[in-house]
Specification:
Layout lengths: L6 E7 L3 H11 L4 E8 L6 H14 L7 E2 L16 H4 L21 H11 L4 E5 L4 H9 L3 H4 L2 E5 L15 H5 L1 H8 L5 E4 L1 H4 L3 E3 H9 L3 H21 L3 E3 L1 H10 L4 E10 L9 E4 L17 E7 L1 H12 L2
Parallel strand pairs: 1-2, 1-4, 2-3, 4-5, 5-6, 6-11
Antiparallel strand pairs: 7-8, 9-10, 9-11
Helix pairs in contact: 1-11, 1-12, 4-5, 5-8, 10-11
The structure holds inosine (NOS).
Length: about 325
C-alpha cells in the first residue's frame, strides 16, 4: 500500500530538558521523519547543545540522524550570551552528567545544512526552532531564497499579549537573539510562532511524572531522571507543581496545526533598551496614518489558543509507549 509521505523535520535545538522531551516525542511520531538536528545556544552553550543532541540520539538509538552544529555567537557576533542553565541544570539535562557521546557532529554548519536540505527538498521541510533564531537567520543570510524554499518554520518564541519569562517584556528564545528573530519574522517564510502565551497552558504535572515513573520504558525512565531540576525551577519561579511543555507543544503544533488556533499579522522584535526581545504584533485592526516599521512586512501566524488536553494526551501516548 502507498505509504503516506511523512513530514520532513529539522529540529533546531538547545537541549535542554523540554528539548529532550520534544526530540523523543518527535522520534516516536509516525507522522514525521526527523532528517536532522541543528544546535544552538540558549538553555546551554552551543558546544554542550551539540554534545547533548548527540547523546539524546544515542539514548534513542537513532544515531542515523545527523547533527549539525550551529552558531556560538549571535547574528551580530555577540559572545556574551544568556544561558538558562538555572532552568535545566549546568549540563542542560537535569545535572545528570551523562558520559560524553561517541558520535560527532557532521562537518557542516547548521545554517549550511538548513540551506542544503531546503535545496534538496524544496517546499517540503518543516524547521522546528526551539531556541534563539540565530541559525535560521544565518541560513537566510547565506541564501536569501531560503524563506521561499523552506516549507514552514514553526517557532517556539515570543510572548504575545502577556509578560515574558526573562523579564516582563521578553521571552527567552527571542531575548537570546532579537536581531535574528526580527530577520526571521520579516523574512517572508511561512512561519507559525508559538509563544509562551500558549505554551504556559500546557502543564505536565506531578501526576503525569508519576505515570512516567511507573512506565518501564527506557525513554520514560530517562526523562524521569532529568526532569527533577526542571520541576524545582518551576516550583521556585512560578509556585506551581508541574512544568510547562514549551518545546513538545511547539513540535506537536508542527505535526498537527489543528491543535492550535492562530491569528495572522506582522511581528517585529525590539532590539534594544529595556524592552529588548519584545515581540510586537500588529493586529491590523487600524489603518495607521504613518508608515511604520510594520508597514508592508510579510505576515506570520501567531498561535492564540491550544487544545492543551489533546497535546497532553499526545505527549503521554508517545512517551509511555
Ligand atoms: O525563566 C526562564 N528563563 C529562561 N529560559 C526559560 C525560562 N523558562 C523557560 N525557559 C526556557 O526557554 C524556552 C521558553 O521560553 C524553553 O526552552 C524553556 O525551557
Amino acid at each position: 500500500m502507498g505509504e503516506v509521505e511523512r513530514k520532513k523535520i529539522i529540529i533546531d535545538t538547545d537541549p535542554g530538558v523540554d528539548d529532550a522531551m520534544a526530540i523523543f516525542i518527535a522520534l516516536r511520531s509516525p507522522e514525521v521523519e526527523v532528517i536532522g538536528l541543528t544546535t544552538i545556544y540558549g538553555n546551554v552553550y552551543t558546544t554542550l547543545a551539540t554534545r547533548n543532541a548527540l547523546h539524546l540520539l544515542e539514548v534513542a538509538e537513532r544515531t542515523d540522524i545527523p547533527v549539525a552544529e550551529g552558531s556560538h555567537v549571535t547574528l551580530m557576533k555577540a559572545t556574551k550570551l544568556r544561558i538558562a542553565e538555572f532552568v535545566h541544570g549546568t549540563d542542560g539535562l537535569g545535572n545528570q552528567y551523562f558520559p560524553p557521546p561517541t558520535g560527532k557532529a557532521i562537518d557542516q554548519s547548521a545554517a549550511a545544512f538548513l540551506v542544503d536540505k531546503s535545496n534538496q527538498y524544496p517546499g517540503k521541510i518543516t524547521v522546528v526552532a526551539l531556541g534563539p533564531l540565530t541559525n535560521i537567520a544565518m541560513a537566510i543570510e547565506l541564501d536569501p531564497t531560503f524563506p521561499e524554499k523552506i516549507g514552514q518554520i514553526v517557532i517556539l518564541g515570543g510572548a504575545f499579549f502577556v509578560n515574558g519569562n526573562v523579564n516582563p517584556a521578553a521571552e527567552a528564545n527571542i531575548f537570546g537573539d532579537p536581531d535574528a528573530a526580527d530577520v526571521v519574522f520579516t523574512s517572508g517564510a511561512d512561519i507559525l510562532t508559538v509563544g509562551i502565551n500558549v505554551t504556559h497552558q500546557v502543564l505536565f504535572t506531578d501526576a503525569d511524572l508519576d505515570k512516567l515513573a511507573q512506565c518501564r520504558g527506557k525513554i520514560a525512565q530517562y526523562l524521569c531522571k532529568i526532569l527533577g531540576v526542571y520541576f524545582s525551577y518551576h516550583h521556585d519561579a512560578y509556585s506551581i507543581k508541574g512544568v510547562f511543555l514549551h518545546d513538545p507543544t511547539t513540535f506537536l503544533a508542527a505535526v498537527n496545526p489543528s491543535l492550535l488556533t492562530y491569528t495572522e499579522g506582522v511581528v517585529r522584535v525590539q532590539k534594544c533598551g529595556i524592552t529588548r526581545g519584545l515581540t510586537m504584533f500588529d493586529d491590523a485592526k487600524k489603518r495607521y496614518g504613518e508608515i511604520s516599521e510594520w508597514y508592508d512586512k510579510p505576515k506570520v501566524k501567531v498561535a492564540v489558543t491550544v487544545d492543551a488536553p489533546e497535546v497532553m494526551k499526545m505527549v503521554m501516548d508517545r512517551l509511555l509507549e
